[in-house]
Each structure stands twice: as structure tokens, then as C-alpha cells.
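Ops channel
N.P.: pipeline sanity check, posting one input/output pair.
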């Protein structure tokens, strides 16, 4: 928990300590003040398998039976009317079975099946573990998306990135611990990267927003072109003095966060623009991500930014493939063939991220998590769509000590319900935290008279997922 006493002592006695610290790197002079930042890197609770996490969020629910969970029974019984439990209506109804429009083939040394939707990711199937037995809470996008990010469907809870920031801090004092790239404005919006009741400094830093070109994304006001460095320094030290006087001796989370943000902003002015500048990458690297190549350009830029930020020390980077509108990208209720559009935009960039991390020696201690908030039904909706399915769906996990080249768990013969080695979203959260050296039952924060945690009172670590 935050140690207010030590911070207040620093604020009271350190003579513009924040200003001196923040400007030390900018002005190439040694820092003489000492402070304990809440974003300072923390030791894990036990030896960790990974140091950082990249979450590639496929908003809308990619269909498991069209991507990573082939079912021959769908081909055999295509078009038949069969009784299924409808999660949305909570009744058993006759539904029309719909086969996948795409073929599956086995790839890699492991021979795991991957849909032809993902020819590039299929080449890396030896590098990740497909989890086919996920299930979650909420049948609508809003609740399920919130649950994926915060472990709750309808309450104000901290997001997973905020919990990691709180528990582990950042690997680079010049950058935030938690960055989300082009987050969606709907289906939870800012709550998906919120700190909620955690100290405000742990809120995710949003860069860009959905439906805007990634090339125009930046951290607003990261540079001050109207004042010289000397003028900025004097202004900053004056503000630090005012903050110190206002702080007094009473804890104030919002004021603390503002002071800490000033300090971090100073350091970010020198370091964040470099981390966000993909022009520093070779032409070959940019081409690998599909930058400058039509449908892959936008998401390719995001994936390359994700690698740069992660490599620079950001603890949790979220890369969002989402729309800033009513319909999330993978949400094909009436036109399943649109999966091809989204696969074309994301397949090559994601594969490039995996190979790039691997070549740089980063994949071993970086977790890459790919997936959506739920899956889709094996029966048709409308003419050729699929409805939401929280009962059984697929994700994959790479790096971080997970068993690569494997598939874990099973859905039923139609690919509807998880039936073998089931993994709830709470279990996934617990397992990811464990890989990062955190006991999900011990990462808690006392608020409103009780200890809260990401997994609430649930969750188990799935040790079988680790090599």
C-alpha cells in the first residue's frame, strides 16, 4: 500500500525534490533528492516466469469454431435444426447448425490445427498455447468486456493493467507502467483501463483511440514548444513548491497523483517520443509488420508500438483491435465472412510481433495474450452470422513459460460449451498473475472496509498451462 508518511516527509523537506529529480535526467545533472515512487519496480512475490505482458484484444468475439477449434460435426450436420441452449434468451431452442466457411490445416512441428483465416499466425503455432476451454461471465459485449478487464461485470473495479502497475510498478521510470493503444470508447470505455479505487497513478495511459488513424496517435501535450527548457524548469520548480505547501501532512490521493504525474511527465518528454517513433525502425521491420500495405498498416503500427513500449520497460501494453461505435469488429451476427476482413488486418502484424519478440530474446520473459471477450455460437444467427457465446471459446498464450505448441482443454462436439479442463476468466487472471510472480490472493487493496483483488473471491492457477 502507499506509504503516505515517507512521501509527505519528502515533499515537506526535500526542497523541490520532485522538480530536482524530474529535471536531473533532462539537464544532465545528478539528482540529490530521494523519493520512493509508487511506480518504482517492485520485486515479485515469488520467482516469476515473465516480466511483462502484451494483451492483444480482439474486441467483439472471434469465432472459436472458425479459428482454433475445428469441429467435424459441424460439417456433417450443417443446416440441420438441433436444440441448443440459447444463452442470450436462457431457453432451449431449435437452431440451425452452421459449418465453418474456412478450412483448417495442421501446422508446425506440433501439428495443431489453425484456420486458413490466419496463414501468418499458423506459422508460429509452435510458439503459443491454444486454450480451447475458456468460459466467462456476461453474454453481452459490455459486461463481458468489463469482466475480461476488471474481473467484474457491473462494478467499478481496477483493470488488470492497473493491478499490475500497483503490484509490480514499471521497468522504466521514464514511462508509465500501463499503456493501452487505441482503446474503444464503448463497451466499458475508460473503465477498461481505469484504476478505480487504486491510487490514481496506476490508471492506464491511453494513446490514441479507436477509429482514429494510429499514425496520428500520440500522448497529448508531451512536448512544450512555447517555452525554453530553462523556463519550463523554473515553472516546474515553482509548481512543485506550491504542491509541497498544499500537500501539508494530510493524505490526498488525487494531489499525490497530480504531483507524481508532473514528475513522470517531465521524464516522458525526453523518452516517450522516442519510444513512440516507429520511423526509427528499419524498412524491413516495418514491412514485416505490414506497415504501408493497406489493410495491415494501422494494426501493424500498433503491434510495432506495442513491441517498442514493452521493450522500453512498460509493464503492461494492451493493443486494441476495436471500433469506436456500436458494433465491435469481430461481432458478426449476420455476415460471418467479415471475419476475413479482420483476420487480414491483424494476422500478419500479430505474427510479426511474435517473431520480433523471439528474435530479440524478449519472448521468453514476455507474455503475449491474444483473444476476445467471448466466442460465438456453432449455430447460425440470421442468414450466415453467429451469436455471442460465453460458454466456450479460444484464446492463445505465448512466452512467459507457457507450454508452446500445445492445445489445452476442449469444447463439446459442436464447439459450444467448454467441457474438459475448463478455464474461467478468473482462472486466466490468476494464472497470468502467477506467471508474473504474483499470488492473486495476496495482491489486494483495502477499500470501503474490505480487501479487494482482481479475482474477487474466485480463481485458481492453472499450473498445467506451464512448461
Amino acid at each position: 500500500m502507499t506509504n503516505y508518511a515517507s512521501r509527505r516527509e519528502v515533499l515537506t523537506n526535500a526542497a523541490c525534490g520532485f522538480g530536482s529529480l524530474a529535471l536531473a535526467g533532462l539537464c544532465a545533472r545528478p539528482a540529490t533528492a530521494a523519493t520512493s515512487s509508487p511506480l518504482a519496480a517492485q520485486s515479485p512475490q515469488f520467482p516469476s516466469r515473465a516480466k511483462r505482458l502484451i494483451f492483444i484484444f480482439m474486441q467483439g468475439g472471434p469465432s472459436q469454431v472458425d479459428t482454433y477449434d475445428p469441429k467435424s460435426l459441424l460439417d456433417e450436420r450443417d443446416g440441420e435444426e438441433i436444440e441448443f441452449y440459447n444463452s442470450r434468451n436462457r431457453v432451449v431452442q431449435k437452431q440451425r447448425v452452421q459449418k465453418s466457411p474456412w478450412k483448417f490445416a495442421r501446422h508446425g512441428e506440433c501439428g495443431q490445427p489453425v484456420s486458413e483465416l490466419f496463414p501468418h499466425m499458423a506459422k508460429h503455432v509452435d510458439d503459443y498455447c491454444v486454450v480451447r476451454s475458456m468460459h466467462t461471465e456476461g453474454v453481452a459485449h459490455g459486461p463481458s468486456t468489463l469482466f475480461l478487464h476488471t474481473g467484474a461485470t457491473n462494478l467499478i473495479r481496477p483493470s488488470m493493467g492497473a493491478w499490475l502497475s500497483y503490484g509490480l510498478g514499471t521497468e522504466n521510470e521514464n514511462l508509465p507502467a500501463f499503456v493501452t493503444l487505441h482503446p474503444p470508447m464503448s463497451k466499458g470505455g475508460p473503465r477498461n483501463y481505469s484504476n478505480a479505487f487504486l491510487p490514481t497513478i496506476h490508471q492506464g495511459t491511453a494513446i490514441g483511440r479507436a477509429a482514429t488513424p494510429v499514425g496520428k496517435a500520440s500522448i497529448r501535450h508531451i512536448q512544450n514548444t512555447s517555452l525554453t527548457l530553462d523556463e519550463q524548469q523554473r515553472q516546474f520548480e515553482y509548481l512543485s513548491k506550491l504542491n509541497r505547501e498544499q500537500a501539508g501532512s494530510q493524505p490526498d490521493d488525487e494531489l499525490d497523483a497530480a504531483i507524481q504525474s508532473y514528475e513522470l511527465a517531465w521524464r516522458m518528454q525526453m523518452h516517450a517520443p522516442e519510444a513512440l517513433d516507429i520511423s526509427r525502425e528499419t524498412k524491413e521491420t516495418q514491412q514485416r509488420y505490414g506497415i504501408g500495405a493497406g489493410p495491415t498498416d494501422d494494426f501493424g503500427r500498433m503491434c510495432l508500438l506495442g513491441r517498442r513500449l514493452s521493450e522500453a520497460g512498460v509493464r503492461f501494453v494492451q493493443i486494441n483491435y476495436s471500433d469506436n461505435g456500436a458494433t465491435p469488429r469481430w461481432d458478426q451476427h449476420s455476415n460471418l465472412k467479415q471475419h476475413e476482413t479482420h483476420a487480414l488486418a491483424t494476422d500478419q502484424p500479430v505474427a510479426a510481433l511474435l517473431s520480433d519478440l523471439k528474435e530479440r530474446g524478449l519472448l521468453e520473459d514476455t507474455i503475449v495474450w491474444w483473444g476476445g471477450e467471448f466466442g460465438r455460437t456453432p449455430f447460425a444467427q440470421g442468414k450466415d452470422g453467429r451469436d455471442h457465446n460465453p460458454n466456450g471459446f479460444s484464446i492463445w498464450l505465448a512466452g512467459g513459460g507457457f507450454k508452446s505448441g500445445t492445445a489445452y482443454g476442449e469444447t463439446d462436439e459442436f464447439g459450444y460449451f467448454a467441457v474438459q479442463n475448463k478455464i474461467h476468466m478468473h482462472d486466466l487472471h490468476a494464472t497470468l498473475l502467477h506467471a508474473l510472480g504474483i499470488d492473486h490472493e495476496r495482491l489486494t487493496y483495502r477499500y470501503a472496509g474490505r480487501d479487494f483483488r482482481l479475482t474477487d473471491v474466485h480463481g485458481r492457477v492453472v499450473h498445467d498451462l506451464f512448461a
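N.P.: looks fine end to end. Residues 74 and 99 are 5 Å apart (CA to CA).
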